[in-house]
Design goal:
The chain is an alpha/beta fold and 336 residues long. The protein has three domains: 6-120, 2-Layer Sandwich (Alpha-Beta Plaits); 126-160, Wheat Germ Agglutinin (Isolectin 2), domain 1 (2-Layer Sandwich), CATH 3.30.60; 165-332, 3 Solenoid (UDP N-Acetylglucosamine Acyltransferase, domain 1). It is built from five helices and 26 strands. It has helices at residues 35-45, 66-72, 95-106, 120-123, 140-149; strands spanning 6-14, 20-30, 52-54, 79-86, 127-130, 133-136, 156-160, 175-176, 186-187, 193-194, 199-200, 204-206, 210-212, 215-216, 221-222, 226-228, 233-234, 247-248, 253-254, 259-260, 269-270, 275-276, 281-285, 291-296, 306-310, 317-321. The strands form six sheets. It has a ten-stranded mixed sheet with strand order 8-10-13-16-19-21-25-26-23-24, with no helix packed on it. Strands 2-1-4-3 form a four-stranded antiparallel sheet. A four-stranded parallel sheet has the order 9-12-15-18. It starts with 5 loop residues before the first strand and ends in a 15-residue tail after the last strand.
Length: 336
């Protein structure tokens, strides 16, 4: 992974009030990157007195790619070309920096939970995301009226602080059945398939090929070759008082409509319909099915080779030794 400092070249959408609504970063240069990236960083860094700079002369950027250069020279009037520099990973100070950090995760330069995203929600504006780009909420009624008058289509896709990932970045080797369910800031590794009911929040994602038919909440990471069954849920840390970062290890399965409130180890299975919270009382069995006593589920965090089930006779939650291996269907994850 690349380290700080870095500079992103961004296209900022400016609302009717003059405020920045979003920023798309097609190019990011790292001081500690390869020779081309490092040279670009040094060139841009010489232009900057502050951490955000509006660019008036595109030629000053020293971009060799003529296609990119041509696109930047023909920007719309409501698009501003900027450079945003991050010298150290501190609390977010601006909309530009917020979007740059979300891009860094979705480009997979940094894994979830490795960047400081403090103040993200306070910084990002709530806007209307439309087929014509972001529109300020204060202007949306006027925009609707204008679209009706001109017989133009205006589709409001969502009203939110976060846009969908694929309006900015299309990760390679990934299949997403419903793009509205994956936010910018999601980290999706090659071979990941997100089905229609799957959801991936910002600062969350997969570390390898995975089947996602459930919800990956903010801060949650899923290991390679793991499967989140339809309607399953992982507990996040944005609300509800949960402070523990949930994760799913490698080769593990979260069954349909199951829930997870502890970090799950490798080669583990949570039975369909079972919501396992940190405080759940779990009877632990050894390989010979001899009871080892009852513990809280959080004491089993990150332990490998466990099968969590609910006893159909007593209703008690049990943790047994998992003798099965979870295998993904390779044909479903060759997302060429």
């Amino acid at each position: 992974m690349n380290k700080m400092p870095l500079i992103g070249l961004g296209l900022a959408t400016i609302g009717a009030s003059g405020k920045t609504l979003d920023v798309f970063f097609p190019l990011i240069a790292f001081a500690g990157g390869d020779l081309e990236s490092s040279n670009l960083y040094n060139s841009w860094n010489q232009l900057m007195d502050d951490n955000i700079l509006e660019i008036q002369d595109v030629e000053a950027l020293n971009i060799e790619d003529k296609t990119t250069l041509s696109a930047l020279q023909s920007l719309n009037s409501n698009i501003k070309l900027i450079l945003c520099r991050i010298q150290e990973d501190i609390t977010i100070q601006s909309i530009e920096e917020a979007y740059l950090k979300l891009h860094l995760i979705s480009y997979k330069f940094f894994q979830p939970n490795t960047l400081n995203l403090d103040n993200l929600f306070n910084t990002l504006p709530n806007v209307a995301w439309t087929n014509n780009g972001p529109i300020e909420l204060e202007s949306i009624n006027h925009s609707i009226l204008e679209s009706k008058r001109a017989h133009r289509s205006l589709e409001i896709k969502s009203i939110d602080k976060f846009p969908r990932l694929t309006d900015y970045i299309v990760p390679p080797g990934v299949r997403i059945a419903d793009t509205s369910r994956v936010r910018l800031g999601a980290y999706l590794s090659e071979g990941t398939t997100v089905m229609h009911e799957g959801f991936v929040n910002f600062n969350a994602g997969t570390l390898g090929a995975a089947m996602i038919e459930g919800r990956i909440s903010a801060g949650v990471i899923v290991g390679k070759n793991s499967d989140l069954g339809g309607g399953s849920s992982t507990m996040g840390t944005l609300s509800g008082g949960n402070k523990v970062k949930i994760s799913v290890g490698e080769n593990s399965l979260l069954g349909a409509n199951a829930g997870l409130g502890i970090p799950l180890g490798n080669n583990c299975i949570v039975e369909a319909g079972l919501y396992l919270t940190g405080g759940s009382k779990v009877e632990v069995f050894d390989r010979d099915m001899v009871s080892q006593g009852v513990v809280k589920a959080d004491q089993l965090s990150n332990q490998d080779n466990l099968l969590f089930i609910r006893n159909s006779l007593s209703g008690a939650v049990e943790a047994r030794i998992n003798l099965k291996s979870v295998e993904l269907n390779d044909a479903l994850h060759k997302n060429q």
